[in-house]
Amino acid sequence: MATLAIHGGAGTIPRGSITEEGYRAAREGLRAALAAGWSVLKEGGLAIDAVEAAVVALEDHPSFNAGHGAVLNERQEHELDAGIMDGRTLAAGAIASARHIRNPIQAARLIMEDGTCLLLSGAGADDFARGQGLAMVEQDYFTTPLRKQHWQRAEDERTGKLNRSRTEAEKHGTVGAVALDDAGNLAAATSTGGYTFKRAGRVGDAPIIGAGTYARNGVVAVSCTGLGEYFIRRCTAHDIASRMLYLDTPLADATQNAVNELKGDGAGAGIIAIDRHGAISLVHNTEGMYRGKVSDDGVIYVGIYADDFGAE
Question: For 156-165, which contacts have Cβ atoms below 8 Å and span 24 or more sequence positions?
Fold first, then answer.
């Protein structure tokens, strides 16, 4: 049974912090990403192609912290991370701290296909993507007015000029997709700009296979969102797969246990996952998570808050 799930980041998302226009735009972005991935699966395509297509759509949408719309680091620059994994073979590819690749997940996919390495960073990632003929852009392509505002608020918070705490949604975010195709193949993909005002050169969990991204046929595909350092320490995505593989833990329990542990660490977290049967888990320990799913009936479900998840 073909199944696809996506996320656009989890965090403290007070209802008043998102305008009605922003709310509608984010939901439309989620729908577009599901449609892009589902167009692959409904024709009998591979899970790896579906997650790539879904994440490309999320990277192209300014509502989310990946690609166009990525956050700014301490130097007001964009450094992008992405990772992808094919559960059929455990092949994976990733990039970190890329600066000019329009769609980082496409570069990660090409690294996976190339097979001579798994992770490229910085100028090396950009050079590889350029050599492969991927679309390259200047830094200002990624910048949006909202991300400039978030950077300024972070600067004001640092200097004591901000009289309120920033929401998690202002600080960080990630996009991701997991899929099961008709042949039973699983795949996962994750992409992010990191967090606002991050130290230059910092790398999160999205490109770290086993931390923020993991897929293994016959078990599960996982994509995570939240402050990456926590996911790296716990190897969260691989931990979920290991619980399911070695302890026969059900998907719902494995993912819920993971977000509960992260909450105990003080981390806001969200996880999307699909098991070998097509069961979906969309869990978070935060007020909201941009998320969506679609399966064999073709009905698209999207939501942002805990109580607004439903069919479109």
Answer: 158/197
